[in-house]
Amino acid sequence: MEDITITLTTKPSASLRASVFSAHPPSTSRNLSDVLVVFLNGLVLSRRAWLPAISHLLSSFSDNNQHPPTILTYDRYGQGDSDHDPTDDPNTIPYSHDAHDIVSDLHQLLTQFTSSSPHLPNLESTRLVFVCNSIGCPLARLYAHAHADQTQISAYLFLDSMIANTDFVSIFPDPDDTGFDPGSLPKGVSPQELRYTRSQFRKFFHPTVPNPEHFDRRKLAEMLPFSDSPSLPLIAAPGDEKPSEKAPLLTVVGHDWDEFAEQCEKGTMAVPKQVINTFMNPTWSRYNDGLLRLVHTPGNSNTVKVASGCGHFIQKDDPEFVAREIKHLLDNL
């Protein structure tokens, strides 16, 4: 992987940092020379968190005497090694640019990157594969619809997607609500633990919580109110007489319930495992089930895969698993 700096023509006073693997395709017709694998970060981990998975992926191609596609992972403005967004209004910080702005920046980045690549066609003819973690998954969904007429997103790998339509706090019952029934709680969960859990999730995950990117998440639930709609755009498929359309490939991966609950209990939040397993994990599981319905084709898995032994940051906890899932998608393109 090569570290590069990219300055968007739309924002010339700041730069993005990226890591790139530029494929050198063979002179054959059946290969991945027109494929660009794009990694979309969550809020916490930068592009460098993907590098172990990418290393495993490249090794798997080498071991099988195959030629890998072009790979791009980057830090958004204000994240990792990238500069802050030069259009952020100092008077509104920490709430500045939103998901629509990030999607627009991503499109400009991909347009410039593909046009300057010696091995890729222009963006409209490049087959994109999005590998996403956390908030990167809703960003991929928003991008797909914003630029459906200009891109071909052939495959998606959603690694523990952020639950985009919640404030996180309301996942847990409010013990101070007038209609709350303490007797409805399962054994091992107390009103005091619920109250504490709600305060911790409000402190760390509520959409109003600032982040170093100045990414304003307050309206994300309005942008994506449902996990199962709108469906991911169809893509062009070559036909005998004229191109037809088909659904993209989609793999949805969820975290290991016990590992995630363990990390919540032993980490900074110190939220009891029983509370997470009673309320958060079932809610997240239903959300992931909805994501599967974003595509309608027999070629896609109808079950959510579980990354055994992994918490929310699957690329960090098991990069080899992530590499295998990417390779599986690429083999099916």
From TrEMBL:
Q: Which domain of life is it from?
A: Eukaryota
Q: Which SUPFAM superfamilies match?
A: alpha/beta-Hydrolases
Q: Which residues form the AB hydrolase-1 domain?
A: 37-324
UniProt-recorded name of the protein: Podospora anserina S mat+ genomic DNA chromosome 7, supercontig 3
Source organism (scientific name): Podospora anserina (strain S / ATCC MYA-4624 / DSM 980 / FGSC 10383)
